[in-house]
Structures are given as C-alpha cells and as structure tokens.
Amino acid sequence: MADNKTKLRQITFKALKATVKGILFYAAYLLLWMFLAPLSQLIPSFQQIIETFVIVYIILMIVGDLTSGTIFKHFFDASKALFIICYLILSLKGGIFSLSYENLSLIVDLRPLIAIVTLLSLLGFAKSILQAINFLNEKAERLQI
Amino acid sequence: MQIPIRIIGITTTFFWIFLIAFFVSAVYSVKDLHINFDEPQLNVTADNKIVFSLPLTITNNGFYSLGDFNLTTQISDAESFVIASGTTFMPIINRDEAATVTHNVTIDFNELLQHDMHFLFNDTELKICEIVGMKIAEMVPIQASTNYSMPWGAPLYNFALGQPQYLVANLTHLQVNLPISFENHAFFNVTGNLKIQMYNNASLLLGEGQISMDVLQQSSYDGIVEFYVLRSEITDNGYLEVSILTPIFNYEDLVISYGR
Known about the structure:
The structure holds 2 protein chains of 2 kinds. Chain A has helices spanning 2-42, 46-66, 71-91, 111-144; strands at residues 96-101, 104-109. By secondary structure, chain A is mainly α.
C-alpha cells in the first residue's frame, strides 16, 4: 500500500516536473518568437517549421521526463538529439534556404549554423549514450549487491 | 562517469543558449539593416567608355558587423549575352555605421558592336541582374538577386542614306550629294566623322567624302556628304561603304546599295 503511494507520488512529481519544463520551454519559445516574428512575414513557412519543431521537442522532453529513472529516458533523450539534426537538415533543405518574391530571390546559407547545431546535438546524443551506459552499470551494480 | 556526463551536459547547455541567443539576435538585427539604391545612371567617362553607375547606401544599425558585402551587376542583351559585369566589394561594415558607395560597371561600346551591331541602329532593352551578397554577423551568408530592364537608345536609329544626286562639276567629274539622316536616341552625343566611299558595280572606288557631326542626345540629324566622282566610271548601281568614327565607337562595316 505504502509502496503504491510512493510510486503515485513519484509519478505525480515527474508529471509536474515535465509540465513545468514544457511550460517554461514554450514560454521561452514565445519570448524568442517576438524577435523572430519579422522573419515570418518574409518566409511564410518559417513559423510552421519552428512550431512543429517546438511541439515535437516538447513532447519528447515530457515523455523523457515521465520515463526518468528508466532506460527509456535515455532513449528519448537520444532520439531528441537525433530529431534536432534530422529535422533541421530536412526542413531547411540541407542548409540552403531560398525563396522568391516577385522578381526578388533570396538565398540564405545556413550550413555553418546547421554544422554547429549538428555538433551540439551529437554531443547531446553522446551524453545520452553515456548516461544509458552509466544507468545500466549502476543497475548491474545494485543487482550484484 | 557522472562527472564527465555533467560536464558534457553543462557545456552543451551553455553552447545551446549561446547559439540560440546569437541566431535570434542576428535575425532580429537584419531589420535594422537598410540598403538604399539610388537612381541608376548611364554616363560616358573621359576615356570614352560607357559607365553604368548605381549609388547605394548601406546603413547597419544591427547588433553585429556585416562581412564580405558585395554587389554584382550583370548587363545582358535580350538573348542573355553578357555585355558587361562589375562587382563592388566591401570587406566589412561595422555596426552603427553607414557606408556609401557608387557601384560602377564599364561597357566598352566597341566590344559591344563586335558582338551585335544592332545596338547602333535599334532601340532595345538591356537586362540588368543585381546580386547583393553579405555575411550577417560575419557568419551567415545571404544573397539577394533581382532583375530589371533598362531602355537602350540607339545612337544611329533609323540611319538612312538617300539616293545620290549628281551635279555636273566639270567635263570629267560629277559632284555627288548624298543625303544622310538618323536619330540619336542614345544618352550621349554623337560627335565625330562620317566617311562615305562610293563604289560602282565593278567594285571600283569612285570617290569618297566625309562630314563632321555633332548630334545632341535625343535629336535627329540630316546632312549631306559631298564628293566628286569620275563621270566615265559611274554605273547605274553600286554600293556605298559607310564608316563612322566617334570617340565612343567606331563602325566601318556598313554597306548600302544604291541605284536600280
């Protein structure tokens, strides 16, 4: 009975933590969007790209937090890192972003930025793998004891 | 194991915050970047080259400097043949600075005539392609391009030679009066000499004459070239070779038939 109560408390705490993190992340997005808003007038699909990214990222973050204390948290963290790389490369068409308006065409080369994002995401991916290895190590040690 | 993982976590978080802040501020500062193009002009230089000038002012009130600012102009004809191109490059425009430059593209009219002599006789449209490139915050390259057209006025529009009129000069020679007319639609004055060589149907040179011209832009010209020819060598038909020598262009390949 007491075990069930502790589990319920843990789950509630995890859910609360995930909700707060999700809200904070979305608030940060809304704050940053105020600065990026002029760009959406120039690039109509920009807001959709960013919003889809933020929604999927928040979902992965919440699911990761809900599964914390299990190996799945590290899977979700790793998938979050891989999602950032894949989504940015696919949505920004390899880093060369072009658009045309009447007889004006604009090309933005985001490859240097994508390279940095990819490196940071790979670092995050490596961190998740290390955390998963560490988690399994600690679990194995606990079982032996 | 925990400590390296924490260090990786802290480092990546720090770099993520730095990167997002940099990207957002770089994008935001683009709205404080103003590039003003003034009216493009066509002029003739002291060494008689045609210069396309485009004055522009770049005002950078953003958070970061602009790097590798370059403006390229490509002038081409209706068949997309590139007549001239020019690039203006500025390595850096610091923040809170305004830079004013005149972007020049030089056109050698003689080279242009070697490609297509229609520029001399026919009004047309020149296609102009402007390409502006820069590195925002000296890191993110962007490029904008636009096309527009500009009217080209022919300096010898509607060029025509009238039928030669023969007047008796003496027993052996005739005076030939040859009417010449054209309209100068160009933005420059046509100042120079026009030389005529008259040949009979056996391609024998009968005589030659020349006339000085000073035709203002957007005005028409009517003149008469006078020269003497041998009576005995005149035939019913033949051809006239026209050479036009001006400081801006020389043209010597114009052949016009006369007679029946």
